[in-house]
Every structure is written in C-alpha cells, then in structure tokens.
Amino acid sequence: MRYPALKIDLAKLENNTRFLVEKCAHYGIGVSAVTKVFCGIPEVAEAMARGGAAYLADSRIENLMKMRNINLPKMLLRIPMLSQVDEVIDYADISLNSEHEVISALSNAAIKKGKTHDIILMVDLGDLREGVWADEAVEYAGRILALNGIRLMGIGTNLTCYGAVIPKADNLSKLTDIADRIEQRFGIKLSIISGGNSSSLYLLEEGAMPRRINNLRLGESIVLGNETAYGNRIKGTFSDCFTFCAEIIELKEKQSVPVGEIGVDAFGNKPTYVDRGIRKRAILAAGRQDLKPEGLSPKDDAIIILGASSDHMIIDVTDSGRDYSIGDIVEFTLDYGALLLASTSDYIEKVIE
User: Alpha-carbon distance 287 to 341, whole Å?
Assistant: First the structure.
C-alpha cells in the first residue's frame, strides 16, 4: 500500500446506509445518499446503492459522471451553473434549483436533447444559502410549470450548512405548507418534499418530523454515523467507515517548546506551545496539503497531535503502549472536513476494503 492512504470499509458503509434507509422508511421517508465527501468513487457509491438508497446525490457533475453506470437516479445538489446546463441534462436526472434563468436554460437544453429533466425548487427557510423566499415559492413554481422539457418534481430546503439554523417542526412545516399551496393552486401532486440533510434526523427520534416530508439528503450520517444538528452519534452505525493512515518518517526525543523567538508559522498563525518537557515525537508523511489535521482522532488514544505544516504532521507518542519505529503506520478516524480534504487530495491513496 502507498501512504498516506484512506482506507474505505464498504461493508460498514453499506450497513450505515441500510440502517438509516430502514429508519427513515419507517416514517415514509426515502434517502438520497450524498456522495460528495468521497468524490463519487463508484465502488463506494455502489455500497450505498446496495444499502437501499433511493437516489445518489452529489454537488459536482464530475462525480455524477463517475457514477453514471450505477442504476439509481442521480441528483445534482448544487445549484447548476449556466455553463454546465448541457452536462446537467446528460448526467443528472434531478437538480436542485432556485434561479429562473438557469431553470429556463435547463428547459432549452432538455428540449434539444429530447429529454425531460426533474426540478426540485429550493426554498430558503432562514439559513441564507440557496433558495427562493417562502412567500415567492408558489409564484416561482408556476413559472417552472410553464416551461417544457422539465418537470417540477418537488420542493426542498437546506438548513445548518451555512447559517447553522437547526431544522425544527415549525420551519419544516412551512415547507410542507408551501407544497400544499402549490398543489392546490396548480392542480398537481409533488412527489418529493425534501426536508434537508443529516441535521434533520433527530426529528425522527422526537416524533417531530412534519408528516409530508418524504425525502432526506444524507451524507455525514451515512459516512460517519453522526447527526449534524447537535453532533450526536447515531446508535447502530459505524463511525470508522473511513480510516486515514500515515507513515512515520522521523522518531526522536525533543523538547516541547521551540528554541528562539516565536513568530508566525507557514500559514500566518502565531502558535502557542505547552511545555511537557522532553517527549518522544514522531513525524508523519502527511500535512495540510493533504487534509485538516484538526479533524483527525488517533486510533491509539495515547497519541497527541501536536501540529502540522504543509507536508509534515507531528505527533507525541510518549505515552503510547506501542513501541513505534520508523516506517510504522499510524491510523486515525476523521471528521467530515478532514474526510472531504483527504478524499480530494491526489496525494492520498484510496484503498477499497
């Protein structure tokens, strides 16, 4: 194996998907499995498909292209770019939208290609990321319905990702009320009312999910086993579907505090240090160009992560019960931000298990 490496346990990922799909199905909710954090690696997406996901969802056309041979509908999560409307029609069955100009361009592209493309109209319920305002949504839906080549499949919202607004029964009920008004006004039936992401899962436990919500877009809850409203672990899921592995390239005893006047580091920060005396320190062949060290947790819980530069990560192994040597591999679990960067880095080997 080449290091640094990201090991991916497909069995655990499939288990997490199945567990959450079954949990959501109990409440009449289908799951769009979000593949963006691992850059749409087809083998990993296939594990989600085997776990029962209804859709595969990603923010990047490039990732949807990788998954084009997987037999599930594909959903584009990020609002489409005008420059990519042809690719959206080619590789996405459904896209989330909030701009009429873009929706109109999708309509024209779909007509030229002889296709019908499904639209989910996004509604901003206060998180201040994408979406039309709630009081504009019905009128906006009417404008979409007037276009050919596309179909208004449903409406959705996004919460917690930007403004950190927590999904609640009251704000998600506004979404279902809008769906009711659209259906009554235009005599149609919306097939998807998408009530957000992994931050909405806790509402199921509380019995507070509005009844018409029938779709959730789940990423972190599947890949890391976390709900994201309050950061709690989800019982019955694995947190170690992904493991980061790095090799020790130096191992020496050194003092805890640098010698000399402290300025700023390579990233413009002025670091502070805790004087622990002479400690056994290992340098790993990985750094900030690969991932976010602050998002790592050593599987050997006696290890302390001291810091990192672009290419070197420094850890304290003094208290470990393991006698580390040059060339040994140190393993870590990752949070969402670290996993996102590790998946994106070309310097990290992706190993499917």
Answer: 11
Report the 10 Å Cβ neighbour count for 10.
17
Q: How far is CA 163 from CA 217, 219, 265, 327, in A?
A: 18, 18, 31, 44
Confirm whether 1 is domain-assigned. no
Q: Name the 3-class secondary structure at 119.
A: strand
Task: Give the mean pLDDT of 145-160.
Answer: 97
Q: Is residue 271's pLDDT more than 80?
A: no
Q: What is the 3-state secondary structure (H, E, C) of 14-62?
A: HHHHHHHHHHHHCCCCEEEEECHHHCCCHHHHHHHHHCCCCEEEECCHH
Rounded percentage of the chain residues whose pLDDT exceeds 90 = 93
pLDDT in tens, 236-246: 999 999 999 99
Q: Are residues 62 and 185 in the same domain?
A: yes
Residue 236 lies in a domain: no
The residues assigned a catalytic role are 36
How many structural domains are present in the chain?
2
Helix (H) or strand (E) holding 249: strand 242-254
Which pTM value belongs to this model?
A: 0.94
Write out the residue range of the structural domain in which residue 346 sits: 242-352
